[in-house]
Amino acid sequence: MKVEIYSDVACPWCYIGKKRFEKALAAFPQRDAVEITYRAFQLNPDLSADPSEARPQADYLRDRFGPGYKAMLDRVVEVAAGEGIAFNADAALVASTFAAHRLVWFAEQEGGSSLKARMVDALFKAQFTDGGNVADPAALLALATGVGLDAERTRAFLASDAGASEVREELEEGHALGITGVPTFVFEGKWGVSGAQEAETFLRILEQVEGEMGATVPETAAPACEDDACAL
Questions:
Q1: Cβ–Cβ contacts within 10 Å for residue 194, how many?
Q2: What is the pTM of this model?
Q3: Does residue 101 contact residue 7 with C-beta atoms inside 8 Å?
Q4: Residue 217 in contact with residue 191, Cβ under 8 Å?
């Protein structure tokens, strides 16, 4: 079974959704036959690539959502804690994620899907727990070497534009599929499920797809960064 996960490093619900899906997968008897591919998506494609222009997440959310942002943020922190994720809301930054998506692409070229998954995890942790700047090449290099990528090869990659066209192609594919919010999970290229569903829901979906019962797979709308997803 092929599962494509569209997500953005800047989306807290993508991190939560990843953890929940992994929990469901661990309980799925046919888990060894599931092929997971992470796909790029950008919630803020117009952000500057200059790492010096990163800004505190709290300021960004206040400007975008108004006074209600604090309650929304508190809920994300609470839900994340329930999944074993420590969200440091005060330290998180909003920055362009394009370079981070390129690094995820590079990790797959260097070490396959398992290294790619570790790179995704490291980026999420940097973004939401450690207050890292995912647009900063130096920060990205440290994360890359932390998951086992070669320092010199990664430094050269980050200084190049390799992978940029591939990432842009993935971004375009997501928009062509009509994806406007993440996380979005696409099963077998046919059935899309949006949002950080509970692990039990993901397990039912895996079982339904495995049994070729795709017509019953639920689709969940992805409202703006509330409940279980982040949208454009």
A1: 25
A2: 0.91
A3: no
A4: yes
